[in-house]
Amino acid sequence: MKTLGRHILVEYYNCDADILNDVIKIEASMVNAARKAEATVINSTFHHFSPFGVSGVVVIQESHLAIHTWPDYGYAAVDIFTCGETVNPWVCYNFLKDAFQSGYASAMEMLRGQTGLLQKNEQYVGEYGDNTPQTIAYHRNVWFTERNENVAFSLRHKGDRLFMGQSPFQKVEVYDTFAYGRLLTLDGMVMTTEKDEYVYHEMISHVAMQVHPNPKKVLIIGGGDGGVARELLRYPNLDKVVMVEIDGMVIDASRQFLPQIANQFENPRLELHVADGIDYVAQAPDGEFDIVLVDSTDPVGPGEGLFTETFYRGVHRILKPDGIMVTQSESPRFNTKVFQEIFQCYRGIFGQNNVHCYLAYIPTYPTGMWSFSFSTKSELNPITALDAAKTQKFVEENGLQYYDAEIHKAAFALPVFVKNLLKG
Ligand code: SPD
Asked: In whole angstroms, how far apart are CA 339 and each of 187, 283, 298, 335?
């Protein structure tokens, strides 16, 4: 029977789960399977879905290869459709079976478009799948996606990971994205990108630094990419920045791949500890620091312990009497429960009127609206304490890109729904 195309539907069982969760390996395998069968690859579009699963398609001149994976079941569903005589889909099938290290695979073939049942419209000449040489530029479309069950955010990247490592704490990855430059992710969550990192790092650092009367010693908990240290070390009168980051791999990857963020690790005023911030705070002497900045990951994995009352009570204890704590406090819209709980917790420790919330717009974090908490041991008001002229001078001398005196004040103006969340 003569047909226009061959379509095989494939079940790959008992595959390597890590491979099935690796969008870069899967895209490369699917493209290479097509090439092995001598198909002409036109483009590919692949998405990784955090935490598990990859979907993608390779468009070939002779039709397509498509996949969806369930790493948690070690299973991949693939369909391979080829038109014409030149490409054998079973070559792709065998190639992918090896690539996914599938212990057991099955497939069924359907012949598509029986020519005996079709009538050719004579206005279209030529044959499908002919060997006419053509130059087709292959266009890759590979996406990183951070999502929960209802919301997703994707960034298209160049298709090759610059770095991937599994530390004792988390999976550390660096991608090269088209829109935001290099991207650092931890356990599949966006931590920072080259193009918008300055928003977060300026806002977590300068709000407290500009209103504290005379900061000399500042502690950073987390901050492994080096962005907060970079901002603090712009202040010549600061004697010491102590940074306690649990994961040396984050520091190493940032130094290698994000050098304009991680550019102060050699500064003699930086005292770096690769250690657990929770232990460090528990053991630090009372009244040791003027400012403590908590640049944590989200409250899952190694960051979880940084969202507990015991930890914040410790931070309060190690602050001087006029000390300030600033933490990243998640997105009011995306992480509503954590956001409310931590503000309640801070108020219980620092006092109802000594805890303030401020916001910044960070396009690559979920919802784009990100919050920070500002808590004082004294009764310092973060808006009225600002000397705007002095701040503007600092901003201009240092070429800041987001923070200035106006943003400082405006950041404390909260949308009604955020105010209501904080009342609740
Ligand atoms: N969901 C994003 C939370 C990121 C918090 N830390 C970012 C690290 C940047 N130095």
From this structure: 21, 27, 11, 6
191: CA distance to ligand 1 center in Å? 4
If asked whether residues 220 and 369 sit together in one domain, one would say yes
Work out how many domains the chain is built from and give that number.
2
Nearest CA to ligand 1 atom 10: 223
pLDDT of residue 424: 67
Ligand 1 atom with the shortest distance to the CA of 261:
10
CA 178 to chain CA centroid, nearest Å: 14
**Distance between CA 233 and CA 247 in Å, rounded?**
21
Kindly give the distance from the C-alpha atom of residue 129 to the centroid of ligand 1, in angstroms, as a whole number.
50
Q: Which atom of ligand 1 is closest in space to residue 201's alpha carbon?
A: 10
Answer yes or no: do 137 and 235 share one domain. Answer: no
Reply yes or no on whether 72 is catalytic. Answer: no
Distance (angstroms) between ligand 1 centre and the Cα of 189 equals 9
Task: List pLDDT tens digits, range 213-234.
Answer: 999 999 999 999 999 999 999 9
Residue 245 domain-assigned (yes or no): yes
CA atoms within 13 A on the CB side of 357: 28
What pLDDT sits at residue 51? Answer: 72
182 C-alpha to center of ligand 1: Å? 15
Q: Pick the atom of ligand 1 nearest to 191's CA.
A: 7
Which pLDDT score, from 0 to 100, does residue 278 have?
A: 95
Question: Of the residues 295, 298, 322, 387, which is catalytic?
Answer: 295
Mutation pick for ligand 1 pocket among 180, 192, 326 (CB with most ligand atoms within 8 Å): 192
Instruction: Output the domain CATH number for residue 134.
Output: 3.60.90.10
131 with 222, same domain?
Answer: no
Q: What range does the domain containing 60 cover?
A: 3-143
> Which among 126, 143, 160 is the end of a domain?
143
Distances (CA, A) of 206 to 128, 198, 201, 281, 422: 63, 11, 8, 22, 23
Task: Indicate the average pLDDT of the chain.
Answer: 93
Same domain, 287 and 213: yes
Average pLDDT for 87-108: 96
pLDDT in tens, 109-148: 999 998 888 887 777 766 655 555 556 677 888 999 888 8
* Tokens standing for residue 241: 């920045």
CA of 200, closest atom in ligand 1: 9
- pTM of structure: 0.81
Residues 130, 26 share a domain = yes
Binding site membership of 243 for ligand 1 (Cβ less than 6 Å): no
Closest CA to 47 of 148, 154, 180, 206: 154
Share of the chain above pLDDT 90, in %: 83
In the beta sheet, which residues pair with residue 218? 241, 291
